[in-house]
Amino acid sequence: MAPRVALSLHCSWVAATGLAICSTWTTSSAATPFRAELDLESGIAAASYNDVAIPGDTGTRLSLTDDLSAEPGIYYRFQAAVRLSQRHALRVLYAPLTLSASGVLDRDLRYVDTTFPAGTPLEARYQFNSHRLTYRYSLWQDGADELAVGFTAKIRDARVSIVGGGRADEYTNVGFVPLLHFLLRWRFASCSGLLLEADALAAPQGRAEDIIAALEYHVSPMASVRLGYRMVEGGADNEKVYTFTWIHYAAVGATVRF
Predict the structure, then answer these.
(1) Environment class of residue 16 by beta-carbon count within 10 Å: exposed (0-12), middle (13-18) or buried (19+)?
(2) pLDDT digits over 128-138, tens only?
(3) At a CB cut-off of 8 Å and minimum separation 6, what does 114 contact?
């Protein structure tokens, strides 16, 4: 047999075997939904806008992306879910984030209780850590495939600090944010699928959205990896604080089910 023909037959056999295995995984896992799930995500995060003024009505408007030079940052997120029954599940999430920016302003900056004179080299640090508990109800579920809605209780731990010219000040805020939850997992091929997930809500006090769209590859019935895009946007505008941020994430993740 010619080498090229042998190689072609070998590659065809490997591909067919892989598809058969994926088909077997799909069939075997369709009848048994996961009881617990661990997920880790990481990647690069960068803001397209990150505007702040403290106090919101009298502080100087500062853009950490336009007025200063912002740096992308490495991020990670960890979540775990447990299925209480066929349709009911709980999820916990820890998502820390820190971004930095630096530069010199051509105007005075009043931030919290400190005034930084024009021409002062500034270092800004934006920190936004998110702790969430989600209740999820499955409208439709077939193995790893699922359509679900729910509610998320979010605790934000925010801190924006500015240092420069021997001066320093920071704003911290810890608060509760209720969000609506949405999840779609759809395996459109033997080993490949689509993930759409969101925590979002808008109200007069402000808005918050955390949305991911990703392609998943199922390496086994109980494990998958993904590559996608995540965005986090939101903020508030009141007398105490003005802050609006839009952050983009290049996301890589892995999920293990039990």
Answers:
(1) exposed
(2) 999 999 999 99
(3) 162, 167, 168, 169
pLDDT at 13: 39
Contact (CB, 8 A) for 59 and 53: yes
The domain limits of the chain are: 1-31, 33-257
Render pLDDT for 205-220 as a digit per residue (tens, 0 to 9).
899 999 999 999 999 9
CATH 2.40.128.90, domain 33-257, yes or no: yes
pLDDT in tens, 54-109: 999 999 999 999 999 999 999 999 999 999 998 999 999 999 999 999 999 999 99
Looking at residue 2, its pLDDT comes to 43
